[in-house]
Amino acid sequence: MKRLVGVLLAYLVVGCQPTHPLVIIEAKGTQNCAAACGRLARLGCPEGLSLEDGTSCTEFCEKTQRNGHPLNPNCVMGIETCSDLASCTEN
In terms of pLDDT, which residue wins out, 70 or 21? Predict the structure, then answer.
């Protein structure tokens, strides 16, 4: 019985190993979130406003970036119109 339990545990441990390495996305430009949000606000883009729960654009940007979802603040800092924002999110 102990042998069966040992075999089952070994199978579970080996079977639970990831078959592919984890991919970590490092969002760049997080230090520029405040400047990007300032740009959005100056242009009058709704994305530059605080969220309904009071989270500022900068806080949202920084948290989203830290969680590995790139918002591309370096690109956002250079947009000329709110519609240019779409070009910063294209892959």
Answer: 70
